[in-house]
Structures are given as structure tokens and as C-alpha cells.
Amino acid sequence: MKKIFIILIISSLSLHAQQEKDSVSTEVINVVTSYKPTISDAFKANETPSIEISKKDKATIRYNIKSKPIKSVFKPYSGSYKKTPNIYSKPGYPDYLKVGYGNFGTPLVESFLHKRKDAHEGQIFLYNRASNGGIKNNILNDNFLKTEISLNYKNHKNTQKWEVGAVYKRDLINWYGTPYKSISYQEDVLHSIDEKQTYNHFLLQGSIALNQEWIEKSEARIEKFTDRLNSSESRFYFSPTFSIPLNEQKIKTKVILDILHGEFVNDYSQTKSINYGYLNFGAEANYPITRDNLSISLGAKLIYNSDLENKKGRIFIYPDIHANVTILNELLYAYGEFTGEVIQNSYQSITRVNPYVSPTLDIKPTSNTFKILAGFKGKITSTIHYNLNASYAQEKDKLLFQSNKNLTDGTNLVSNGYEAGNSFYVLYDNMKTLSLYGNLSASINKNIETGISLSLYSYSMKNETESWNLPPYIATGFVTYAYGKWNSKAEILSKGKRKDLLKDYNNLETIKELNAYVDLNLSTHYKFNRRWSAFLELNNVLNSNYEMYSNFRVQGFQVLGGGVYHFDF
User: Fold this and answer.
1) N or C: which end of the chain has fewer CB within 10 A?
2) What values do phi and psi take at 187, rounded to 5?
3) Bridge partners of 169?
4) Is residue 396 part of a domain?
5) How far separated are the first and last CA of the chain, in Å rounded?
6) Distance (Å, whole) CA 217 – CA 211
């Protein structure tokens, strides 16, 4: 009996001890992170993220967090479908079909297909937008059409990554900008003007990135550009990039081969054809230096430019120096650059800026002799970012636009649709430019992003009396709002006054001043579910028929709406 009593006491103590052990509570730590990329991330891509961590007092638990900057790999794509943010889809629905219709007889069809399996990735992009025109007071057709088809294939492997792509673009425009206010055109003259122009652009491109010590990447492009009046341009570009080890750093060297050739059937006086050809061959090298809060990239560019038609060659040497200094971590950075380059102008690149040029152009390169830039950027608060800089540049053979001479007084017929004072040619001059730039972006809260920028320019010309068709300022601004199923955006653009030189049938020259303008655009998207969304775009809300170039007014208030269907191809 005594032994039984002792056993009961020991069992009771053991049970009591076990209950005491179980009374110790366990802590479950749930770490939840939610990252939603927004437009302002483009301003923050090179900054070390600042993470706030809530803390709780605990008697027996301590946390030590070793922070490490995360290198951003976000690269915004600036393709033609950038105005269709992929806000509708969640993982599983990466593809979409967008269909809409607007006033001025404007149908829109846009689609993106993407497929990835193992090391293979393919993309298809389709875009088609047209308009029947209807700009106020136009006496010629002003309809347009923009079409693009893009195919892309990527192969991801451990030792290499390569990519090939093909792009076809077709743009239909009209030389509709006649000086109808100063000239009265007879009906037979108007009927004789064939104002239609079409551009076709074919592009084949490829690149390969190798996981090797010396060779980093190689890329190549073949382009063909034609128009409705039998103008033709071909271009070949090849550029390998090498990394050469030196003193625990690497000298990055890029070799460039760029060959351009083109022809126009006639010059503006219809006396001869125009042929042009250029070869650019050279290299650029950079050596990085990092010391505490200072990073410098020392480099130079050496380019040989050959005029193949005139059998002339030139050698250009440019600096390529960049520096960044951290003054106050995340709050204030100073940066600067001393650079230069050759810009090989082409018929294709010129029409992207001004599609209303005549196919009678003088094509040659522009030499940016040097550009000196210095500025500051950083944060005012954790949600407000700024960027300020000033620059001074000197350019040789800067490309400018000016109106072609009008070959009719309204009573005589013209041979080509671009000869009625309704097209532009290019001219070149040496120019010095002083510019100031400021940018401010802010995240008001998790739903609202906003930003503004302002660029001011002061031009000094060597031969020309004016900096033809260049604005003294460009201002932009945007506000985005996202809440629930809604996503909206407002954008504003303003350009200052510009000047053009008009030449009439009697060789009388008149300087025309184009007024400054403001263009306000609004858009909104509503998501019904993961597959279906609706969109509405309001462009040129102020209903201003401002002039992009002399006599080329834009459409007034525009409304475009439709739906988007997302799916998994």
C-alpha cells in the first residue's frame, strides 16, 4: 500500500510538470508581403528600397535583419501598345484581345499572345487603328491607318540566351496641310493633288547573350523601308559586346557596324534622282571605377563615317564619361556626364518624327560633338522623388524641318501630291543648345500616383535665323488612380511656340509662328472579372485643332471605347 501511494505521488508530479511545459505558448510569425508595381516604379528603378518593419516587444525573441539592396531588373517597354496597361489580368491570363470604336470613324483592334514552355518563349503582337478623318476646314483627305505585326521568339538556356524577331509596320497618311487660308484652290487643281502616302517598314532582328567571360552579347538588325512613290531604303546593323577583365574590373567594349543605303526617284525640282549611302564603323569602351559613395564610368567612342556616294570619310572621337555621387543616402545624389555621338539619320527615322516630309530629302548624319550635363536627384520624402539637371550641347548638322515651296498659286496643276505647299523638307545647321530639366513624381497614397516634368530650351544657330519647328519648352504631367475594379489615368502635354518659313509660288517668304498648345487625354478601365474589361479613352479633351506643323491641324475631341478579353493562349 505504501508503494502504491509513492507511485501515485510520482505520477501526479510528472503530470503536473507536463502541464507546466504545455502552458508555454508558441508564437507563429506570418510574414506577408504584397508588391504591386505602379507607373512610378520607373522613377525608382535604380534606388535601394526602403522597408519599414513593424516591431513587437517580446521578452525572449529577438530578430536581426541583414538588409541587402535588390538590383531592379524592371525595364519598361515603350512599344505601341503601351497605352493598354496589363491591369486586367492575373497570373494565368497573360494574353488579350482589345476591340474598340470611336468618333471620326476610328476602329481599333489590338492583340497580344504569349506562350512560354521550358526554355522556349514566343510572342505575337497585332495592332490596327484607322480613322476616316474629318478635321475641320480641311480641303484634302486626312484619313490615316496604322498597322503593326510583330513576332518574337526567345530561347533561355543556362549557357546562352538568344532571341529573334520580325516586325512589319504600315502607315497610311495624307499631305492634307494646304495653306487654304492664303490661297484659293480651283476644283481641278484640288482633284489633281494625289495627297496619299504609304510607308512600309520591314525589320528582322536577333540577339544572343553568352555566359562567357569575354563575349557578353551580339545583336543584329536588317531593315527595309519603302513608300508609295517608289522610294527605298535598306539598313544593316551589327554590334557585338565584349568584357575584358582589368584590375578586378571589366572594360566593356562595343563594336558597331552600321550600313545605310537609299534612293528617291526625284528631287523636289524633278530634275534628278537622289541616292545616298553611309557606313559607320567604330567602337566604344567604358571602364567603371567605384570608391565608397562615388561611381565613375570612363569611356570614349571612336567612329569612322564614310559617305559611300561621294567617296568621303571622316573620323569622330567622342568622350563617354558618367559620374554619380551619393551625398545623402536616398535623399540626395549628384550626377553628371560628358558625352558625344554620331546619329545616322535615315528616311525611316525622319518619317517617325514628321511623316509629312516629301520623298525628296537630303540624308546625312548629325554629329553631337559634345554634351555636358549635371544634376541632382533624390527624395523629398519617402513618396516624393525629384530630378533636376542642366545641360549644354553642341551639334553639327542638326536636322531641322521646314515647309517646301508651294508650286501652285491655286490655278495651275501640280505633278505630285506633296507640291502644293503641303509637305516639308529637311535642312541642317550647326546648333548649340542650353537646356534645363525638372521632374517631380509622387505616390499620394496606394491608389494615386502623379508626376510632372518640364524641359526648357535655348537654341543658338550658326546660319539659320530661327530654330525651325523646335519648341522653347515641353511640359508633361500625369495622374493615375486605381481603386477596386477601376483604373484611370489623366495625361497632359504642352509645347511652346514654334516658327516655320513658308515660300509661296512667287518665292515670297513668310515666317509663320505656330501657337503653343495643350493636349489633355483621359482614360479609364473597368474590370468586370478576370477575363472581361471595358475601356474608354477621351483624347484632346480641350477640343483644340492645334497645328503639329504648319497647316497640319489635329482632330478635335476624340472618344474611343470598347472591350478587352483576356485568355491564356
Assistant:
1) N
2) -60, -40
3) 148, 201
4) yes
5) 81
6) 9
- CATH no. for residue 555? 2.40.170.20
Furthest-apart CA pair in the chain: how many Å? 135
Pinpoint the alpha helices (H) of 392-549.
none
Considering the domain boundaries, does residue 497 fall inside one? yes
pLDDT at 137: 86
DSSP category for residue 420: B
CA distances in angstroms from 340 to 85, 306, 388, listed in the order given: 35, 18, 21
Distance from chain centroid for Cα 390: 21
Q: Can you say whether the dihedral through the CA atoms of 356, 361, 362, 366 is positive or negative?
A: positive
Which long-range contacts (C-beta less than 8 Å, at least 24 apart) are formed by 80-86?
80/127, 80/146, 80/148, 81/110, 81/112, 81/125, 81/127, 83/523, 83/537, 84/110, 84/535, 84/564, 85/487, 85/525
pLDDT digits 0-9 by tens, 179-210: 988 888 999 999 999 999 999 999 999 999 98
DSSP 406: B
Cα within 13 Å of Cα(295), Cβ side: 7
Grid coordinates belonging to 160: 546562352
- The rounded distance, in Å, linking the Cα atoms of 155 and 9 is 74
- Beta bridge partners, 322, equal 297, 337
Q: How many domains does the chain have?
A: 1
DSSP symbol at 60: S
Q: Which residues have CB under 8 Å from 185's CB, separation 6+?
A: 139, 178, 408, 410, 420
3-state class percentages of the chain: helix first, strand second, coil last, to nearest 5? 5, 55, 35
DSSP state of 187: H
What is the rounded CA–CA span in Å between residue 528 and residue 447? 19
For 227, the enclosing helix (H) or strand (E) is strand 215-227
Cell numbers 515641353 label which residue?
Answer: 474
Residues of the chain with pLDDT under 70: 1-92
Residue 266's pLDDT is what?
95
Residue 448: all three cell numbers together: 494615386
Q: Quick check: helix, strand or coil at residue 302?
A: strand
- Reference 83, options 565, 540, 535, 449; nearest CA is 535
pTM score above 0.85: no
Q: Are residues 112 and 96 in contact, defined by beta-carbon separation less than 8 angstroms? A: yes
One-character DSSP codes across 381-409: ETTEEEEEEEEEEEEEEEEEEEEPPB---
C-alpha grid cell, residue 419: 507640291
Range of the domain at 294: 70-567
User: Beta strands 294-307 and 215-227: pairing type?
Assistant: unpaired
* Domain-located, residue 415: yes
Please check whether residue 286 is in contact with residue 302, taking contact to mean a CB–CB distance below 8 angstroms. no
* Per-residue pLDDT tens digits for 369-395: 999 999 999 999 999 999 999 999 999
Q: Judge contact between 134 and 169, C-beta under 8 A.
A: no
